[in-house]
């Protein structure tokens, strides 16, 4: 393998690594936002809201679903009935 081919291969490998690291960092930022929203909903809704269940869902789904405390559809899976 000549020097030019090695440089191209090294550059391609570096670009792939940067893309993977960037994608992972973006996922972690989404998870963090999701968990912060869970905490906000817990403050707003108190004992009716299962904050730990919400945080577990954030991690499981990698922040793809972010709860909105004012949207009943987004927090419904984490609500409980106090009797």
What would your notes on this structure say?
This protein has helices at residues 3-45, 51-60, 72-75. It is mainly α and 83 residues long. The radius of gyration is 20 Å and the shape is rod-shaped. It starts with a helix and ends in an 8-residue tail after the last helix. The model has no long low-confidence stretch (mean pLDDT 82).
Overall spatial form: rod-shaped
Rg over C-alpha atoms, rounded to the nearest angstrom: 20 Å
The tally of beta strands, per DSSP, is 0
Spell out the helices and strands N to C: HHH
β-strand percent reads under 5%
The residue ranges in which pLDDT falls below 50 over 5 or more consecutive positions are none
Count of DSSP H/I helices: 3
Structural class based on helices, strands and sheet pairing: mainly alpha
**Helix proportion:** 55-70%
Mean pLDDT: 82
Distance between the termini: 73 Å
The biggest beta sheet is recorded as: none
